[in-house]
């Protein structure tokens, strides 16, 4: 039954990928790149097989021009670098427009300019006439062409403009075409257009310009950034603009890490990067790191949760038939199946988890049986290993591989005090830690008990394990486990730590929040020490 | 030019909303709810206007059955509660199938059962025959109908199954229809189906079952969860299953906080919650707090970044023409335009919140202005009132109605100690509390510092307010607010309490976890005292 399957050898046109992470992506809240990061990301995008890289808007900030100065010295394999800007101002001849001058000074092979499609924007925002707007588009495209540039014309607010006045919207595209633009890009600038509207409008544009290459530039404000991009391609567009991880203004741009596998793996469109799609997750992580953003675990295809199975029915089925609960093979995008250990886990999911970590454990061995018993006890007492891989690996090391922990906390004491007169809290922690035959008894203070314990533990451990000072806590969460029992119920603490390279999660559980915190902190340091001894992978 | 605009008065069918946050949502990594949080969320969903609330899978874990026991005692305005489960096992007659028995014991008006559509799953995973699978579906639906339930049939892997073998896939739906199912829900269980496929397949199903109500249950693995849901509705489906904030397995379920405004505000489908859509952001934040999840700022419509403008061109244009860079009016979903980076609440949203709680506050009064200033300070220091209604009401009492708190905590001290020899932790807390002119200086101990503080506070208060002994803590959650800063960042504690009749949430924030806990506990007791004086409603 092949009715709905995708023919692998198709006559579909090649799709050009146009990445604007370095320009539109930086409009996202909290997103910025240093100049050297911009260059590194451009090189990475090039080696992945991206066709066009929009590097910035010359003049909008000093970093963008510095990027163009540097990228000119780099030999890229395939990608063409584009500078982005607007058409000339209404008041200027194009030859003397300062912004157009900067676009040429960027010395890029490609220039992308945007112009107004929506009449309301022309009259209310630009405060000029429809006729002048048309001239601004044609003049600017032609001038850039005459200066040897490949020109991509971005029709801002195309869909809103077309819905308002299709005749005027098409006239702006005709102006860009007369000027000589290689691509006419239809922008859903406000991100609110629906799939059916895009199907109809791109179809109409395609009919009007049967020989011109059409592009799509979409945003995600209605949660449809990817869907409308795909709809545009199906209606005839051959260029896709978007950003890595969907970074961009407001809710973000069409996410290329989702668009690419959909177009290539599922819809069968040829593209230059097709052979590198197994490096997609790597590219996504790399971009997040350069942008100093937490990588979104819920990102389609490339997120850490994309192929995760929580114990029970699904994990069991995936074990039986690999694609029973996976829409593609995770390896195709450089991802992998993960099984998380939850209170519904059986032996099957534990074994899968151990295998996934590359641990050589035999399902029927006595150590494994002992470990499973121990694990059930621990889960009953409130530990949860779903987001605490590091604590789980330490458990396996202890119970299955039977290695002793390199240190032990013998005792601790925390004093936390608030006084009305000072209106201030002070926390002091003392810990006694045994490392081999040595005992370290130290004290530290902080604004809170967890900070004080963390400081005291570091002090004690750094005598023999100075690497603990590289560990930084990045997240700290607390849950009470059985709401019915109130404050005497079990408290679970989840800690996330990093040493700048690795990120790991640990867990502690106790009826005392301080003890639970101490356990999670202790595991975070134990894991760092094990990591440095190459014991955990 | 109305060609693509949406007619406001349309003949479109009503869409039923089916929320499965409490069941499928909890399959998401890191998502879990206490029983009392489940009840609170169900009440909130009901008052928002959701039609069906799937509460859990009886027997899969102890919490789900406890939820059904409690929700039965609650009078909901509109929503019908559904219990979820599978068809009988191949080896059992339906009358003796233990899982089906549990479904009836949940005593819900609606039961939703899933069955297999994909032949490969029948033979490889269930390891039974096509014929037996058909019987399992029909038997189970009919048995539940005979027992007076409204039955929603969820056809698992419907799209993959249909692509593999449309005849068998339709035969499974026919079985459910023969059994008497009210809804046939088409599930894209693996989340990989494309928009065009859904359009074709739902169209075909609709043709085959012209008189049966069709539902959609989609996942977001291809980044199309919302798009395929909308495509299904346009092709004839009248029920939408999804979760708040898109929580759910792997990448998550179709996000109802995106689906609802798309269907209602943009596509003109009538739905029961239409009049409450301006409370959508509030509902989304409430759900995130109960799930102890960071609210995703990039969530369409309801995220903090949804209508943010990073200054410059767009902010200026938005100033000139409000809808120039906004796809809808943010207020329509309870959100707002932000130009500068700030999370502070505006007067309008506070007023909305106060009105929602039935509080009579005047927008322009000096007390209200003072209150808003205070609130901005508090939010800046880490307090958040989305799920802490009680603390918010206490604030209004203090600042708007200018009533003094009936007690004050002058100082406290906590000592928490662990010793290797006893292998035990002890926590001792002393508090000095002022009530009127009296001062009570007491000490208590517990297994942890929060319990010790709680005990000491009760001891001190019960001299004059014995009702505090009726208060029971039902949930306790802690978040660190700025992950980058590590343990010295602000810590927010959310406490949920009950006196057996009412349930209320309170909040505390500090760089000291003990101080933040004390504040949340203090508010919990203050609220109970105010409740008994009839001062808060």
TrEMBL record, chains A, B:
Where would you find the membrane-spanning parts of this chain? none
Q: What's the top EC group for this one?
A: transferase
Gene3D superfamilies xref list: 1.10.238.260, 3.30.160.270, Aldolase class I (3.20.20.70)
Keyword annotations for this protein, in alphabetical order, are: Amino-acid biosynthesis, Branched-chain amino acid biosynthesis, Isoleucine biosynthesis, Transferase
What reaction is this protein's catalytic activity? Answer: pyruvate + acetyl-CoA + H2O = (3R)-citramalate + CoA + H(+)
The Pyruvate carboxyltransferase domain is annotated at 15-281
Give, as in the UniProt entry, the pathway in which the protein acts.
Amino-acid biosynthesis; L-isoleucine biosynthesis; 2-oxobutanoate from pyruvate: step 1/3
Task: Look up the EC number in the record and give it.
Answer: 2.3.3.21
A matching Pfam family = HMGL-like
| Record-level GO BP terms | isoleucine biosynthetic process; L-leucine biosynthetic process
Q: Which InterPro entries match?
A: 2-isopropylmalate_synth_dimer (IPR013709), AIPM/Hcit_synth_CS (IPR002034), Aldolase_TIM (IPR013785), Citramal_synthase (IPR005675), LeuA/HCS_post-cat (IPR054691), LeuA_allosteric_dom_sf (IPR036230), PYR_CT (IPR000891)
Alphabetized SUPFAM superfamilies for the sequence: 2-isopropylmalate synthase LeuA, allosteric (dimerisation) domain, Aldolase
Which protein family is named in the record? Belongs to the alpha-IPM synthase/homocitrate synthase family.
PANTHER family to which the protein is assigned, alphabetical: (R)-CITRAMALATE SYNTHASE (PTHR43538:SF1), ALPHA-IPM SYNTHASE/HOMOCITRATE SYNTHASE (PTHR43538)
What name does the UniProt record give this protein? Answer: Citramalate synthase
């Amino acid at each position: 039954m092949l009715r709905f399957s995708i023919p692998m050898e198709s006559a579909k046109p090649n799709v050009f990928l146009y990445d604007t992470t370095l320009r539109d992506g930086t409009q996202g809240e909290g997103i910025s790149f240093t100049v050297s990061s911009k260059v590194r990301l451009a090189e990475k995008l090039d080696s992945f097989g991206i066709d066009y890289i929009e590097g910035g808007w010359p003049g909008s900030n000093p970093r963008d021009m510095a990027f163009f100065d540097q990228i000119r010295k780099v030999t890229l394999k395939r990608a063409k670098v584009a500078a982005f800007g607007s058409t000339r101002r209404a008041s200027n001849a194009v030859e003397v427009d300062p912004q157009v001058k900067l676009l040429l000074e960027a010395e890029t092979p490609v220039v992308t300019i945007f112009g107004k499609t929506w009449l309301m924007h022309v009259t209310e925002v630009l405060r000029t006439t429809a006729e002048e707007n048309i001239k601004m588009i044609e003049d600017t495209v032609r001038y850039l062409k005459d200066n040897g540039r490949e020109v991509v014309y971005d029709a801002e607010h195309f869909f809103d403009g077309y819905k308002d006045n299709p005749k005027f919207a098409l006239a702006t595209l005709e102006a860009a075409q007369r000027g000589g633009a290689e691509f006419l890009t239809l922008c859903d600038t406000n991100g609110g257009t629906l799939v059916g509207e895009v199907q109809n409008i791109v179809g109409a544009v395609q009919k009007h310009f049967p020989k011109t290459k059409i592009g799509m530039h979409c945003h995600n404000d209605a949660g449809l950034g990817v869907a409308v991009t795909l709809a545009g391609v199906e209606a005839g567009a051959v260029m896709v603009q978007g950003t890595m991880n969907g970074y961009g203004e407001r809710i973000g741009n069409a996410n290329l890490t989702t668009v690419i596998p959909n177009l290539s793996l599922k819809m069968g469109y040829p593209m230059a990067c097709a052979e590198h799609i197994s490096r997609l997750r790597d590219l996504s992580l790399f971009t997040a790191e350069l942008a100093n953003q937490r990588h979104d675990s819920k990102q389609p295809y490339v997120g850490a949760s994309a192929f995760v199975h929580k114990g029970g029915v699904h994990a069991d089925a995936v074990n039986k038939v690999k694609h029973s609960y996976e829409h593609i093979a995770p390896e195709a995008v450089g991802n992998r199946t993960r099984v998380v250990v939850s209170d519904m886990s059986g032996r099957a999911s534990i074994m899968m988890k151990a295998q996934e970590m590359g641990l050589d454990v035999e399902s029927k061995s006595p150590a494994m049986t002992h470990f499973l018993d121990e694990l059930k006890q621990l889960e009953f007492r409130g530990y949860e290993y779903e987001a605490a891989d590091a604590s789980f690996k330490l458990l396996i090391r202890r119970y299955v591989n039977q290695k002793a922990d390199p240190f032990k906390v013998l005792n601790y004491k925390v004093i936390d005090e608030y006084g009305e007169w000072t209106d201030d809290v002070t926390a002091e922690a003392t810990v006694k830690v045994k490392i081999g035959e040595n005992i370290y008894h130290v004290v530290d203070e902080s604004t809170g008990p967890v900070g004080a314990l963390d400081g005291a533990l570091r002090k004690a451990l750094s005598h023999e394990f100075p690497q603990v000072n590289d560990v930084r806590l990045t997240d700290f969460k607390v849950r009470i486990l059985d709401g019915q029992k109130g404050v005497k119920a079990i408290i679970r603490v989840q800690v996330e730590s990093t040493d700048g390279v690795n990120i790991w999660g640990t867990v502690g559980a106790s009826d005392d929040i301080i003890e639970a915190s101490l356990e999670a902190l202790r595991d975070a340091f134990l894991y760092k020490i094990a990591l440095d001894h190459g014991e955990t992978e």
